[in-house]
Amino acid sequence: MKRTKISNLLGEDFVSKTVCVKGWVRTKRGSKNVAFIALNDGSTINNIQIVAETSSFDEEILKDITTGACISVDGKLIESQGGGQKVEINADAITVLGLANADTFPLQPKRHSLEFLREKAHLRFRTNTFSAVFRVRHALSFAIHNFFNEKGFVYMNTPIITGADAEGAGEMFQVTNLDLDSLPKKEDGTTDMSQDFFGKKTNLTVSGQLEAELGALALGEVYTFGPTFRAENSNTSRHLSEFWMIEPEVAFNTLEDNMDLAEDFLKYCIKYALDKCNDDLAFLDKRLSEEEKNLPQEQRSEMTLIERLNFVVENNFERLTYREAIDILKNSKPNKKKKFQYLIEGFGADLQSEHERFLVEKKFKKPVILTDYPKGIKAFYMKMNEDGETVRAMDILFPGIGEIVGGSQREENLDILKARMEEMDVDQEELWWYLETREFGSCPHSGFGLGFERLIMFVTGMKNVRDVIPFPRFPQNADF
Ligand code: 4AD
Ligand code: MG
Question: Where along the chain do its domains lie?
Fold first, then answer.
């Protein structure tokens, strides 16, 4: 018999039809006469209940049906006798496809800590929390492509192996096929990179932006959606060494247009998840409320997860300049009372996550777009403002997350760009191709990068970025 997905059975009127379902056993309970099996096949957060009359089955088979085992069930879909579910399956035949030793299967039907489950990343898909998170992750990927496709953007794949350091931050993973135990040396004792695979030093990309700009200056509107790699040694709940980034780049857009695009984009994605992931978000909403019950009052969210998502969709983001933010922070209570770890003295200070969170969570209580940062703390490619001190940068800050988007209007003037590169010690020869776009038919353009995992954190309410990507990479960890 052909298998039907549990999501379809629960959603449609199959009652009194004979069906076949396949999935993994979440729990089995029952009495001498009847066994109740909760079965999940990943198509929905909801399990279907299988009712098996013990007299109709081999004792051995029923014994083999333990938490974690994979089974196939043929039976009749009937209206449920008990509460809690609308329909259930009265089993006629059960085949055990894969046993799961009850003594060693790590996921018992009880609450496991997220830390424990991270060590079992190969099996954590089988929990309610992670299956919900990864279905939401899927929905958000789809929303992203939909959004840009509907607007006529061209999806562009930028290289993963690159010779350029886009952010100029230098925190890159080197790619080589040289034998590290016997490196070819030049006369001066340094490694002869001309003998490496590509004939020069290469790295994993930290951003597809510079290449996306090349595309935008011909195709008009492009976006990338791919993996990016950063070898920063930040062991925080918001940083991964390998994460996914979405980078739209648009010819003729000003910083204002860029902000409008980013705000529309974020709202579209969140709304899409609210529309398409009802059951999963309802589950995650409840999960978060329960998790927060154990926190002191002041650390609990004022809104539930779903309230917060609706709030972001329905309200305008607060827009202010870096200078305005610094004024607010300088005169804020935590700064005056020296509660910030990094005190704000004035213009030039790099904002730490404690400052971002103050602005978003205490002062404005909504997403904030900060613009016009000092040139010294931003990348070389950002367009210089008339004041000669600030650049047309924008960061979008979200409650509970901090920075979710970073972007800017780009410097399109060749001379100013060259001067900035000199100032910031960025190699101009290496980026000859980038500079040529300013030489031939340059134009104003803007773009931004959204950290995909940070968006998923916000939408699912998960508090650690390691819990929203199937197999997280972070310092000292590349398991699975
Ligand atoms: O602010 P970032 O570094 O900006 C860029 O890379 C630009 N080239 C983007 C552009 O203008 N096209 O990174 C963009 C976003 C951040 O706002 C953050 O959400 C995310 O990427 N991000 C990370 N996410 C997870 N782990 C990390 N280590 C991250 N670093 C940045
Ligand atoms: Mg940034």
Answer: 6-106, 126-171+206-317+366-467
Give the number of the ligand closest to the Cα of residue 223: 1
**∠ CA 149-44-459, rounded to 5°:** 55
Which ligand has the minimum distance to the alpha carbon of residue 446? 1
Classified as helix, coil or strand, 240 is coil
The pLDDT, as a whole number, for residue 478 is 95
Residues 76-86: tens digit of each pLDDT: 999 887 777 78
Amino acid, single-letter form, for residue 213: E
Q: Looking at ligand 1, which residue's alpha carbon is closest to its atom 20? A: 451
Residues 265-273 have a mean pLDDT of: 98
Check if 6-106 and 126-171+206-317+366-467 are the same fold: no
Cα–ligand 2 centroid distance for 351 (angstroms): 11
Instruction: Tell me which fold the domain 6-106 belongs to.
Output: OB fold (Dihydrolipoamide Acetyltransferase, E2P) (2.40.50)
Tokens of 206: 């930290």
* pLDDT of 12: 66
> How remote is the CA of residue 168 from the centroid of ligand 2, in Å?
12
Give the mean pLDDT of the chain.
Answer: 95
Task: Classify domain 126-171+206-317+366-467 by CATH number.
Answer: 3.30.930.10
Atom of ligand 1 nearest to the CA of 232: 28
Closest residue CA from atom 31 of ligand 1: 451
Question: What distance in angstroms lies between residue 283's CA and the mean position of ligand 1's atoms?
Answer: 29
CA angle at 270 for the pair 265 and 272, rounded to the nearest 5°: 95
This prediction's pTM: 0.97
> Angle at Cα 219 formed by Cα 214 and Cα 225, nearest 5°?
70
